[in-house]
Amino acid sequence: MSDKLLRLGVNIDHVATVRNARGGAYPDPLRAAKLAEDAGADGITAHLREDRRHISDADIDGLMEVLSVPLNFEMAATPEMQKIALRHKPHAVCIVPEKREERTTEGGLEVAREENKLAHYIAPLREAGCRVSIFIAADQRQIEAAHRIGAEVIELHTGAYCDAHAEGRMDEASSELESLREMSAFAHSLGLEVHAGHGLTYDTVKPVAAFPEVRELNIGHFLIGESIFLGLTPAIAEMRRLMDEARA
Questions:
Q1: H-type alpha helices, the chain
Q2: For the segment 11-62, what is each residue's pLDDT rounded down to a tens digit?
Q3: Helix or strand run (H / E) with residue 71
Q4: What's this model's pTM, rounded to 2 decimal places?
Q5: Is 232 left (phi over 0), alpha (psi -120 to 50) or beta?
Q6: Can 14 be counted among the known catalytic residues?
Q7: Is there a catalytic annotation at residue 74?
Q8: Domains by residue range for the chain, with CATH
Q9: Which of 14, 47, 147, 157 is catalytic?
Q10: Is 216 helix (H, G, I), strand (E, B) or coil?
Q11: Given 37, 54, 74, 195, which residue is catalytic?
């Protein structure tokens, strides 16, 4: 894929959320992953949380078996998750902050404060052949720390920008977008591959997709929600269209 084209990773966590609401087997996240793949997703993202509130261990087992596109395995920096990742050796692991009481990931990982610990934590993952991504805020100090510990990829948290946009705080949205733009360029200058995600919608994706340094967007909750009205394939196709239009 050329540098100009932008990859789309589809997060299927909330297909599992709906399944788990009834405690049965439907809807099946693996089926959603294959549909997303057929619809043009360049990768599938799944977050195995400590409390297993959506994706389960069996889902990860199944995804590793059925996917033809890369799996981006989101995980907290815990010994349990490291062991699971080392057993499966997915294409990529994305280290994210995680609090049991949060509804969704609330911000970026505090890398600078935990630099030594995280450096030792990700070393076995890199040795196993996984691409290590760190989910962080658009903050120069955190980006520099991610670079020092040996991460190959950063994923910039776009939630503050998306929230401000959704609530009509447009000056704040513009400021957050400018920070994302500046930090995308800064991370790229260090040799890091830049991804972005969290809260992106049809209304907010194009400005971020237009950043030339960004190579991948990971989008989940909005696409799963929109699929209720459009179907998963058309929902993904429209996101893909907007991303490509932003890069044209």
A1: 13-22, 29-38, 57-66, 79-88, 115-127, 140-149, 159-166, 170-189, 205-209, 221-230, 232-247
A2: 999 999 999 999 889 999 999 999 999 999 999 999 999 999 999 999 999 9
A3: strand 71-75
A4: 0.93
A5: alpha
A6: no
A7: yes
A8: 7-243 (3.20.20.70)
A9: 47
A10: strand
A11: 74
